[in-house]
Q: What sequence folds into this?
């Protein structure tokens, strides 16, 4: 059994993440090309998870979201990573 000072009583749902800490906090993502969902829908979903959608690709971008026909390598982006 846990000590009483470790277990907190809560009226709402329990989350393993601290308040405001979203799964993609601090990530930068880019949306490239045509996608099945609108870029506005994707942007909202990405931002709801804590990430930022950027227009310029650089070394700080964690991932690019695209369709199957858009496959790029770091050499094509000239990122040197």
A:
């Amino acid at each position: 059994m846990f000590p009483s000072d470790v277990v907190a009583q809560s009226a709402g749902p329990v989350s393993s993440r601290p308040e405001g800490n979203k799964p993609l906090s601090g990530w930068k993502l880019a949306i490239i090309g045509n996608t099945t969902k609108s870029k506005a829908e994707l942007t909202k979903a990405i931002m709801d998870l804590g990430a930022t959608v950027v227009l310029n690709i650089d070394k700080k971008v964690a991932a690019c979201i695209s369709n199957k026909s858009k496959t790029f390598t770091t050499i094509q982006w000239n990122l040197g990573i």
